Amino acid sequence: MPPPYFRPIRPSAGFPTVRAMDTGVFAGQEAENRYRAVYREVWATCPEPDEVLDVPTSFGPTRVYRFGSVGESLVLLPGMAATAAGWGAELARYADGHTVYAVDTLGEPGLSVQTAPIRTAVDRGLWVHEVVAGLGLARAHLVGASTGGWHATAAAVHAPQRVASVSLLDPTAVTVGFGFGVLWRAPLTRVLGWEWFLRWAGPGEDFRLVLAGIAEYRARPAPQVPFGDALRPVRVPVLAIFGRHSTVHNGERAARRMREFVPHAEVEVWECGHRIDAAERVARFVRRFGA
């Protein structure tokens, strides 16, 4: 029998029901079962969580894994379809001196259960706000990788009340759109498959869970559009790290735009691709801005 935190969760009676076309949903029970098998397999390579929570929000219950119980609270928002397990061994490093809450993004594959649509950046920011509130935190430091960086930014722009700081790891579509390489390769996935695309975007990574999510789950994400001038009023501390060799966008241009829109942000360009391992750098940043 799988551990309790791998068993299905269902929304409580307090959540409204909506048409499947409005929310992310598995393609069927067999599809969900196949996905959960891969989910368990990938989680077996991750640290054991100290606590597993299903946090209620107005968009549906959100699966959150807690690691550690000391220091500042970090909420980790993963890349597209990566789930909390996508952080892998980094979870233990983020939890060194911090309390880490790793999230399965609502509306994407994982064990969160979407019950209401998330149509805009405002909705996404509100969802992040409600997760932090549901965890009982006055404020938290948000750490977003790739698409998770867009989600963290949505909170900083539209619902900053509980945001202590934001750390963005090669965030997609925050300051610039997706690069030409993504745009011309995306249509070819119909022929060559998503694994071909993902191997190009992040060579060397373990994409089992992402591929299972693409195959078995029908996501309904809000469109990712750069925030532009909406970033100018952001006042929370921001660390933004971009990969000079990122495959998803022009990292140097994205960094320049971040400096333009958020002058107080600490913006760095690393000699790497889209995947950025920055647990220690984030820890140093967070220590300076206690919640």
TrEMBL record:
<dbReference type="InterPro" id="IPR050266">
    <property type="entry name" value="AB_hydrolase_sf"/>
</dbReference>
<dbReference type="GO" id="GO:0016020">
    <property type="term" value="C:membrane"/>
</dbReference>
<protein>
    <recommendedName>
        <fullName>AB hydrolase-1 domain-containing protein</fullName>
    </recommendedName>
</protein>
<dbReference type="Pfam" id="PF00561">
    <property type="entry name" value="Abhydrolase_1"/>
</dbReference>
<dbReference type="InterPro" id="IPR029058">
    <property type="entry name" value="AB_hydrolase_fold"/>
</dbReference>
<dbReference type="InterPro" id="IPR000073">
    <property type="entry name" value="AB_hydrolase_1"/>
</dbReference>
<dbReference type="GO" id="GO:0003824">
    <property type="term" value="F:catalytic activity"/>
</dbReference>
<feature type="domain" description="AB hydrolase-1">
    <location>
        <begin position="74"/>
        <end position="194"/>
    </location>
</feature>
